[in-house]
Amino acid sequence: MSASARIKDLPVSERPRERLAEKGADALSHAELIAILLRTGSQGFSAIQAAEELLRKFDTLSALSQASLEELQNVKSVGPDKAIALKSAFTLARRMAQEIHGEKPLLDNPASIANYLREENSAYTVEQLQIVMLNTRRKLIRVELSSQGLLDTVLIHPREVFRPAIAANASAIVLVHNHPSGDPTPSQADVMVTRDLIRAGALLKIEVLDHVILGRRSTEGGKDYVSLRELGYFV
Predict the structure, then answer these.
(1) Reported pTM
(2) Residue 143: its pLDDT value, please?
C-alpha cells in the first residue's frame, strides 16, 4: 500500500476497513488498524500516513499507548478528536487485558491514582468528582463518577459519595477531581469538603484515604496533581 495514497483512492481490496471485514483484524498491519481509528487525515496527510508517523515517533505500540493527549497531538494530522479516539482504544485494551488476567490495579498511593485517571480527566472541561473504591488490599473495585460541576466548582454531598461505596462493599475510597484551569492547588472549599467526608466515612467505617486533585504540569518534571494527605490536611 502506498503511504501517499488516500484511503478513499485505494482499491476497495486495499482499504483497511474493507480488508478487516473480509480477512479479519489479524490480517491488518499496526498502521492499518490505527488508520481505522483515525478515520481520515488532514493537513495533506492520509490516515495511513498519520498512523505510520505515530509508529515512527513512538516506535512501539506500548509506548504509543502510554503517550499523553498532548504528545499525540504533536504528530501532524492528529488533532484533539483523533488523540481522544486513540487514547480511548488503548485504555479499553488495557482494561480488557486486566479483566482477562483477573488483575485489579493496586492504587495505594497518590501517584498510582494519578497515573490511572490522568488521561480520562485531561479531556474534561468542567470539574468531575470520581470516587475510587478499594478493597482491604487497596486494589481497585471500580471508579464511580459522583458529580460534575461548572468550570471551577463541583457540588459534593456525602450521600452521593458513600452510596456506591456501600453498594460495592468498599473498605476505603479515594476522592479524585480535576481542575480544568490546570492548577491542582486545593481551594479552601476542597479542604473543607474533604474534612466533612473524612468524618462521614469514619461513621460509616469506610476510610477516606486521600483526595487527589489532577491538573497539568507547570514545569518540566513537575507534578500535575496534589494529594491533600501529603499536604497535611488529613491530620
Answers:
(1) 0.62
(2) 93
